[in-house]
Automatic annotation (TrEMBL):
This is UPF0178 protein KAJ83_07730. It comes from the Bacteria. Belongs to the UPF0178 family. The lineage of its organism: Bacteria, Pseudomonadati, Pseudomonadota, Alphaproteobacteria, Rhodospirillales.
Amino acid sequence: MVSLYVDADACPVKEETVRVAERHGLRVVMVSDGGLRPHPHPLVETVAVAQGADAADDWIADRIGPGDICVTNDIPLAARCLKFNAHALKPNGEPFTPDGIGMALAGREIARHRRETGAGGGGPPPFSKADRSRFLDRLETMVRAASRAASDG
């Protein structure tokens, strides 16, 4: 069965993830390094990890499996999930893919270097209603495809 893992710190689509999971009867694991209230839905497990730079990422990467889905903006975490044949989806609905993850990691390093050298960068655009809608659509599509693959194999 497909599980949904949410890198929950500052994730703007937690409720949307729960709605999709409820439709399909899927387990949701919200992982945070603190400050996240337990979700009342019985399909949702809330995990608080020790505070640390990658504690939530490490927890998810240690447990995610083939066909599972991780909701995250974190590019290195997405890369780790893809290595386990899991799926990764940004809260704005943009999927991370095996073909594009190398470029995303490189772009992240370029942006980090620009910040360190004072060249700056504007950061991502504000989260919008269109992003939320796109996320719901893409998560639904990803869940259906992952569920079909799990039942086939």
